[in-house]
Amino acid sequence: MNIFVFGSSLTSTYWNGAATYYRGIYKSLHALGYSITFAEPDIYGRQQHRDLETVSYADVRVYRSPEDIPQLLDEASHAHIVVKHSGVGAEDVRLEQDVLACRSNRTKIVFWDVDAPATLSRLNDDPNDEFRILIPGYDAIFTYGGGPPIVAAYQELGARACIPIYNALDADSHFPVPSVPELKCDLAFVGHRLPDREARVEEFFFAAARLAPEMKFILGGEGWGDKHLPENVRWTGHVGSERHNAVNSSARMVLNVNRQSMADVGFSPPTRVFEAAGAGACVITDAWTGIEQFFAPGKEILCARGASDVVEQLRQHSTTQTREIGTAMRDRALRDHTYESRAREVDAAFQQLFAVTMEQAAGRPARQDRTTEIAA
What we know:
Blueprint: E1 2-6, H1 19-31, E2 35-41, E3 59-63, H2 69-76, E4 81-85, H3 92-98, E5 108-113, H4 116-125, H5 131-134, E6 140-143, H6 147-156, E7 162-164, E8 185-190, H7 198-211, E9 217-220, E10 233-235, H8 244-250, E11 251-256, H9 260-265, H10 271-278, E12 283-286, E13 302-304, H11 307-316, H12 319-336, H13 339-361
Parallel strand pairs: 1-2, 1-4, 2-3, 4-5, 5-6, 6-7, 8-9, 8-11, 9-10, 11-12, 12-13
Helix pairs in contact: 1-13, 7-11, 10-12
């Protein structure tokens, strides 16, 4: 089966938090026998900061002008599945509409939302948003996270099916490595400076650093250059994917801070949680609804509701205990949350899309379930 994808970037993690997710999903779908073409625009300096030069599991098409889109859509119309990811970063509104012209009995169209809270907030803020009337035209909506609240919201908007496909671990890419002396610290956080995240990073990371001046903190990610940092915080700048294992294996604990919108809806473990799990790191996460669906709080992951909780976790857990928690988290991820298992969920959803068409062609009533949720 052939899949044609419009996404932000498969080749670069630069200002592109979805790259790890894309790579894990599409590599695993390719292993199941899918042929994948991934179209990505040349924007935001991503091609100048590529960290994946060769992609063995997909044919990557880098397009440099909106004038290239009609040719890409013509090619997409011959695929079995066309995927329009949210947040491509260029011509999103146009693509949301134009990919629907590829739809036929042979070609199914999926909108794969990698930031459903932002998309739904956009629709709530603007009742005239053009995407609102397009949603029922897609054969299915996939989401990167959000769980029952996001499924219900998309169902209310007329989605034929809404299927969460959660983040996961790519064990081939994320695994324990020897610690690096210059990256050793008590707590590491890697994340770009974004409006929807900065206040929470201030609350969970910077405030914690001020409460624990005797400890060392490392901050990675773009956009923090002009931020006034506590003296015990060292900023490393952009952390390429090739350095994630080193950071996660060198820190005594690793912090996850969800963006506010993701924290509000819950059921949204970001890629950094699974990357850290792969390295066997002990993760402290901001608390959000649904975390127990993925990892056991207190045993496989530590939860915090603010800076004082973060510092308490740092002070009360010995190195032996953090290693035990990190090992338990890695074991759970390898058992229940790999991209191979997520790809099987995607495959089942794709097969269901074509099964419905076959039922309709045979004159049998299509199944009435408008919402499908696959358990993590």
